[in-house]
Amino acid sequence: MNSRRDRNARAALFDGIEEGGIRASSSYSSHEIDEQENDRAMDGLQDRVNLLKRLSGDIHEEVESHNLMLDRMGNDMDASRGVLSGTMDKFKMVFETKSSRRMFSLVVSFVVIFLVIYYLTR
């Protein structure tokens, strides 16, 4: 009884296969393959490929513009670093002498007083 089920299962699995090839089943005929559906599917794929191509081109342009902007920003940062190092060198010269320390403290006190008055009158 068990072997009969195995034979039936095998027959169901290999139904439609003959020696030398696959037998055409009655449920699948060559007339069911519609060329218009294939053409529509190909057109849809072509539209998708074109859309992806445009998107990748837009992404490329965006990346290029951001790279240029970052390069300019890096150059500006280098220039400001040069200015800042020059300012720090000047501050070092100011702190080297005692009289210049007094001048520095006087300038700082004027700036602080100015800021306090500015915020009070606001």
Q: Could you explain how this protein is built, in words?
A:
The protein is elongated, with a radius of gyration of 41 Å. The model is unreliable at 16-29 (pLDDT under 50). With 122 residues, it is mainly alpha-helical. The chain starts with a helix and ends with a helix. The chain has helices at residues 2-13, 35-96, 98-121; strands at 17-18, 21-22. The chain has a two-stranded antiparallel sheet with strand order 1-2.
Spatially, the strands of the biggest sheet line up as 1-2
What share of the residues does DSSP label as strand, in percent?
A: under 5%
The whole-angstrom Rg is 41 Å
Q: Span from first to last CA?
A: 102 Å
Q: Given the structure, what is the number of helices?
A: 3
Major sheet: size, sense and barrel closure? 2 strands, antiparallel
Spans with pLDDT under 50 lasting ≥5 residues? 16-29
Overall 3D shape: elongated
Query: Which class best fits the helix and strand makeup?
Result: mainly alpha
The helix content, as a percent range, equals over 70%
Summarize model confidence as the mean pLDDT. Answer: 77
Element-level helix/strand string: HEEHH
Total number of β-strand segments?
2
Highlighted features:
122 residues; 3% strand; mainly alpha; 3 helices; two-stranded antiparallel sheet; Bet1-like SNARE 1-1
Nutshell version of this structure?
The protein has about 120 residues and is mainly alpha-helical. About 80% of the residues lie in helices and about 5% in strands.
